[in-house]
Amino acid sequence: MKIGLYASRTLRAATLLLVVLAGCGTSPVIAPDEPNDSFASATAVEFGPTRSARITGTVDRQGDLDVFILGALTPGDRLRLDASTPGSTLDVTLAVFDTQQRLVYENDDRGGEQGSLLDSYVDFIIRHAGNPYYVVVSHSAFAASGTVTGSYQINLSVESDFDVPGPVGQTLLLDFDGGSVDSPTLGRTTIDPFSGRAISPIYRSDTTLLKELIRATVQQNFERFNVTLLTTDEPLPPNGEEYSTIFLGGYNSRTFGIAEQVDLYNTDFCDDAIVYSESFSPPVFSNVPTVEQLAEAIGNIVAHEAGHLLGLNHVEDELAIMDAASPADTFLQDQEFKEAPLSSDIMPIGMQDAAMLLNEAIGPSQ
Ligand SMILES: [Zn+2]
Known about the structure:
Blueprint: E1 29-30, E2 43-44, E3 52-59, E4 66-73, E5 78-84, E6 92-97, E7 103-107, E8 120-125, E9 130-139, E10 150-159, E11 170-175, E12 179-183, E13 187-191, H1 196-199, H2 207-221, E14 227-231, E15 244-248, E16 257-259, E17 272-275, H3 291-309, E18 339-341, E19 351-353, H4 354-361
Parallel strand pairs: 1-3, 2-4, 11-14, 11-15, 15-17
Antiparallel strand pairs: 3-10, 4-9, 5-8, 5-10, 6-7, 6-9, 12-13, 16-17, 18-19
Bound molecules: zinc ion.
């Protein structure tokens, strides 16, 4: 079983091809200087006098990356990358990295009224200075057959002196009571109340203790950040106050948990996620967990799903809360929000610094 939003993908090899298209307008046209699959071999983007440019290129095989150097960016710079695929069926994806090769923004589907699932759009105000920043162009990790390769063009622009969005604290509600979830991405479903007995008869007397210990694990995972943690055993926030909800209960044969979205920089204060507590039955672990170990495992997955709701993607590091590649025994460890290599499902190069992103989205603990 895996955790989170994503299914695994199989990589296929194919051939390499370079396409250079003619430019138009006043923006310089940049073509990838292949191979440019790494930060070290990235192609420099030369901006015109209006700080705009156009990139044209081709994703020519499964796993092909085009890495470009955007140069220096400072807080308040508004970076826009408009990627389209005229005459091509490529499902293009964009990822922006800072100087330390840490992901700061990504987009796979343009969404919105224009709604294309093939094109991508980034409109992002830089939070921290870096020289250089990078953009990586590839096919989506979720590209359907026939949309893995093809040409793309990207219009880039940088405008200065925008207000830098400040971090805003977030309230998280752990919902142990069950009930109906109705979400655009999770669908409509009913979650059973949290119950130790429903996980395994050996925990039949431990429901209250498990809830307390799960809460303590989530609290500890978020202790450095501006998160207010509540449970349905406590008074709810006053009417009108926004909070995101993580439901704990029920069973899912395919996953331990699922989040409504990867909400980059936490633009939505009212997201939902589900942690299927009954999926944590003893046989998924090498040894039968103690109550404390079981609570650690469930609490780590609660923090993982909350991490998605606060803008975090998957990484590959079994001590990282956002890890998604390791077996269930790894949840029994004291995982934390840490810097780790991005999951290859997201991008096969680059890092994610979870603490940096959480500090920029929700801020440090008050
Ligand atoms: Zn996940």
